[in-house]
Amino acid sequence: MEKVICIVGGGAASIAFLDGFMKELKGKQGSGYTIYVVEKNPTFGPGAAYYDDLGSNLLNTKTGFITIFPERKGDFYDWLHNHPEHWQWKYPNFDASYDTYAPRPLFGQYLQSAFSQTVSNAVKMGVKVVPVNAEVMDVKKHREGYSVETACSISIYADYVFLMCGTLENARQDTPKMSSGVISNPYPVSKLTSWLGKNKNIAVIGSRLSAIDTIIALKEAGHLGKIVMYSRSGYFPSVRGTQGRFSPRNLTPENIKNIKSKKSSLSLKEIVDMVKDDLEFYFRDHPDDPQEPLALPTPIKDFGAFLSDEITLAEGPRGWQAVLYATNAIIDDLWGLIRDEEREIFRERYLSMFLSYRVSIPRENAIKIKKYFDDGALEFKSGPVRVEKNENGLPMVINEMSAEDVFDFAVLATGSPKRLSKSNSTLMTNLEEQGLISSHPHGGLEVAEDTYRVIREDGKPENGLFAVGEVTSGKFFFTSALDIICRHAQRAAASFYEDSHKSEYIPYRADGTR
Questions:
Q1: Domain at 1-12+23-155, CATH class
Q2: InterPro entries, per this entry (predicted)?
Q3: Considering only CA atoms, which of 412, 438, 437, 241 is closest in space to residue 324?
């Protein structure tokens, strides 16, 4: 009997899920599956993160490292060199060498190709994959299965639904086409540069990747008005050094699995000690690298001096970055081991500083930001703020002291809202109203750790409804990195297949054998 799966979202997670599911079906021709992939953007593969936009939006992972297929290291790099005709005309100045940082829209072209390749592989195995260009507004539960309802009145009936929606936007407020207002999502930044007047005064709320993309896009388009970046935490991303990948000794999947078999939890101190031990191991393995310590950063007092120091340090390898990036392989399992009370402490006291260390930026972007700052074209302010409108409809940025800065536009470059109710997602609102999903206290929605089934309002798992990606950040903590998204998507595929074929299931090994 045919089984129908509907994937909501046609970005990176959907590619990884399809790839993982095809591995599980290997050797089973005519498997009897139809898989709908519903994507609101015109192209399948890039999703919102890598959608066609300005080339100034850069990846923060090196060209030689990043891939959508975990077992095919360097796949993006190989694609660039095997298919120059697909991209060189659009990015003639991009150096496709191993250690460069590619434009994100270029990586989106690669993902578009990867999606087509994955669909082709599925069809060869007898799986029907049906891409549908539409925005999903609701998923309704029936006695058997679900109906996936779209904005264009298409209804898809499915036995199973996977929510792979990517990053949720803040609730929409104004559009850049207006003469002033609050812009809830900076992407695509090409719209900002096309619609915002060059002499407008702009507040950018946030200081991480989307804020940096926004500022660079505006300045490279010739913006002349005042731009102020507001870092609510007082932190700014570190600048990525020249180091390569690192194989840790303590922070490995095997070691974490061994720890979980012996004890139910870890303290923050124990985790910090493991990181320090691996950093010592890194320095023993790389004795010629600068032995930059891993110290708790403090909120920035002198932005220009901070950038100067970071840019200088990033000229060489930074061992602590190699160690922290290596935690991608275990960060969700590690998060699950931390005691509840210590998770709260971490989120309240250390999350912003952790993200400033963990989510770094390419040196070339840091140099641009410093130039804007040195030229007086950019200001950096720190501390909690809120955005309101004055009597003339202009956005005001109000700080703790109730001081008001008035702008023509305020751009909210703050990532996904913590609460589903604060997002622009009609789908999530409708699912919550039906009680089919429940909010996680730390953000996103609640899911079962091993199966990725969503947890309903009544606390029970919804058997045919699953979620993967940024909407599960409350459960898995750090879900924005591509390799982490891919791992979760492939785990979800394996878990789903195992549940659906319990009598015949043999786990798939990383080397392609069973």
A1: alpha beta
A2: FAD/NAD-bd_sf (IPR036188), HpyO/CreE_NAD-binding (IPR038732), L-asp_N-monooxygenase_NS-form (IPR052189)
A3: 241
